[in-house]
Amino acid sequence: MSLALKYRPKHFSELVGQESVAKTLGLALEKGLLAHAYLFSGLRGSGKTSSARIFARALQCAKGISATPCDACSSCVESLQGTHLDTIEMDGASHRRIEDVRGIIEQSRYKPSLGRFKIFIIDEVHMLTKEAFNALLKTLEEPPAHVKFILATTDPFKLPATILSRTQQFHFKKIPLKAVVAHLKFIFEKEDVDFEEPALEMLARSGGGSLRDTLTLAEQAISYGDQSVSALATSQMLGLVDSKILEEFFNALIAGTSVESLLRTLAEHDTAMVLEEMARFLKEAMFSQKWSLGVLEPFMSAVAQAQPLLNYGADGDFVLALNTLKMQASLQQTPQTATPKPAPTTQAQLPAQAPTPPTAPQAGPKELFQQFIAKIESTNAELGRVFREFLVFQSFGNGVLFLHSSADEGANLLLRQHYKTLIVPCLKEVFGPSARIETDKSKPRPLEQFKENNPSLMQAMQDKLGTTDGKVEDF
């Protein structure tokens, strides 16, 4: 049996990283505050289907409705085996037609034969057709007293608003890295698998906040290392870049020595993976204060600008080489801070007026962006954390604040919820009444603006692609 199935949670207390959802559902069961329809949304492998099954088993338990089902009565045993007659699971991806929904409506008319309720769990519900949603709508709004619906989806924005308004919604967030590592450690100890702590962090990062994906990778790592999970073997299996190589690479850039051999080593890996590992390494270096912010900022900016180029179809080796050149160029630039010294003046030459107080230097776009985040953070700490973690400043011009976004589904949901009520007012207050936001996920930067801001990059792209008309139309 796979690790994901063997260690699938059977009670709310076993859910990893979803404490708020588990607490809310548990209290609802204990106090009898039950809705007729629930919607569980969030990243794949975050516990939506497992929570739906636990919730259904708690409702059907013969010893009474409670947050902790007994697991011993006939209803609990059959629920654990997936054979309970009154708990019907349906995959919305393969049963998406109106005929399938009509079957649910027909079954809902009959009272339960074994349990307390007839419970319908529909996974990936966003895959249902428009006609199927319309057919489900009336039953979902006013179901018989003995019917409960539990819908699960990875994309709640594809559901009609009429469906969303008739369900009690729970969002399953991305599972924190520390929680995933702790769960992996618990499983490896129970399975008597030798492991190294850095290897667990590699697996957790590669899982991307999905516990199921992480456990699948963990099984692969156990097989690859023959019941031993080491950091070296795990990095080789996952194709990750050794952090020692990255440290040597950035140290060589700072020292001004050759990075040619290190660049060839990095080119052996997937470019997207290399840029992702660079971003992670620089983030850790910032927290540990390994280098000054004056060194880290241009490095981070170069990596952020390099990542979108891969989406345009640019050659990976070229993007990596260009990224290195931009880092080297940023270190060679020296700020022009010297100002001409004014000629000395006598008391007689001074104008007869009150001294003018010194004016504070005008803040640049990056400083304004930090003020913008701070203003949001003072009102909503969680939203401020999303901005700091997932959104990177790119440029500001003509009233447009351009950001690079790496937000996941949960972060996007939070951003959309507060966009009009909080984000836009703070944006206009800091950047002006006509300011607006664009991200490289929602709308790519105009080509003319890209040419204007990156003339050397455009020339390099022309040389690489061999264009003859002096234009680069699409990359």
From TrEMBL:
Give the record's subunit note.
Answer: DNA polymerase III contains a core (composed of alpha, epsilon and theta chains) that associates with a tau subunit. This core dimerizes to form the POLIII' complex. PolIII' associates with the gamma complex (composed of gamma, delta, delta', psi and chi chains) and with the beta chain to form the complete DNA polymerase III complex.
- Give me the reactions it catalyses: DNA(n) + a 2'-deoxyribonucleoside 5'-triphosphate = DNA(n+1) + diphosphate
Pfam families this protein is in?
DNA_pol3_delta2 (PF13177), DNAX_ATPase_lid (PF22608)
Supply the NCBIfam families for this chain.
Answer: dnaX_nterm, PRK08451.1
Q: Which keywords does this Swiss-Prot/TrEMBL entry list?
A: ATP-binding, DNA replication, DNA-directed DNA polymerase, Metal-binding, Nucleotide-binding, Nucleotidyltransferase, Transferase, Zinc
Q: What is the lineage of its organism?
A: Bacteria, Pseudomonadati, Campylobacterota, Epsilonproteobacteria, Campylobacterales
Entries under SMART domains matching the protein: AAA (SM00382)
Q: Which residues form a coiled coil?
A: none
| EC number of the protein | 2.7.7.7
Q: Which SUPFAM superfamilies match?
A: P-loop containing nucleoside triphosphate hydrolases
Q: Which Gene3D superfamilies match?
A: 1.10.8.60, P-loop containing nucleotide triphosphate hydrolases
Q: Which InterPro entries match?
A: AAA+_ATPase (IPR003593), DNA_pol_III_sug/sutau_N (IPR012763), DNA_Rep/Repair_Clamp_Loader (IPR050238), HLD_clamp_pol_III_gamma_tau (IPR045085), P-loop_NTPase (IPR027417)
- Biased-composition ranges, Low complexity, are 332-353
- Member of which family? Belongs to the DnaX/STICHEL family.
Its biological purpose is as follows: DNA polymerase III is a complex, multichain enzyme responsible for most of the replicative synthesis in bacteria. This DNA polymerase also exhibits 3' to 5' exonuclease activity.
Using the UniProt annotation, give all residue ranges assigned to the region (Disordered): 331-364, 437-475
Boundaries of every AAA+ ATPase domain copy: 34-176
Q: What is this protein called?
A: DNA polymerase III subunit gamma/tau
> Where is there biased composition of kind Basic and acidic residues?
437-451
PANTHER family attached here? PROTEIN STICHEL-LIKE 2, REPLICATION FACTOR C / DNA POLYMERASE III GAMMA-TAU SUBUNIT
Tell me the superkingdom of the source: Bacteria
